Amino acid sequence: MTVDQDAVMRAKVLLLGANRRVVRGPRGLSAYRVLTGVNPEVYGSKLVKVLVEAGRSPRVAELPQARVALLEEAVAVARGLSPANPYRARMLALAVAALDEEQGASETS
After folding, report:
1. How far is CA 79 from the centre of its chain?
2. How far from 86 is each of 12, 78, 82, 99, CA to CA, in Å?
3. In the list 63, 68, 91, 102, which could disulfide-bond 48, CB 3.0-4.6 Å?
4. CA gyration radius for the chain?
């Protein structure tokens, strides 16, 4: 896999400039996707959080397929974390619960 070093640098600058633990919203989502591709153990748990938030966002309230896709991505990222990662269990539980909630809601609709 080739890594776009410019994209990695832009993502790191965004995170450093934000001065917060987790950068949320579309910019954070984009940055964490890039950085998780480079270092999943460091950035994967933050990507999971941002994906779950994106899946619950009003921006996708009327787009059930988009919500499910975001939450499925969150589950996949969480499962991809090393079992030794101290955040893996919590992030996997968060992502699976959000996906289960979404799928339960869409079944009752």
Report:
1. 12
2. 22, 12, 9, 22
3. 91
4. 14
Q: What is the CB neighbour count within 10 angstroms for residue 34?
A: 20
Q: Which residue has the tokens 């993502």?
A: 11
Rounded Cα–Cα distance for residues 25 and 6 (Å): 21
DSSP 22-90: S--HHHHHHHHHHHHHH-HHHHHHHHHHHHHHHHTSGGGTT-HHHHHHHHHHHHHHHHHS-TT-TTHHH
pLDDT of residue 19: 83
Identify which of 64, 38, 65, 36 has the alpha carbon closest to the alpha carbon of residue 50: 36
Identify the segments of the chain with pLDDT beneath 50.
Answer: none
pLDDT of residue 104: 86
User: What global pTM score does this model have?
Assistant: 0.91
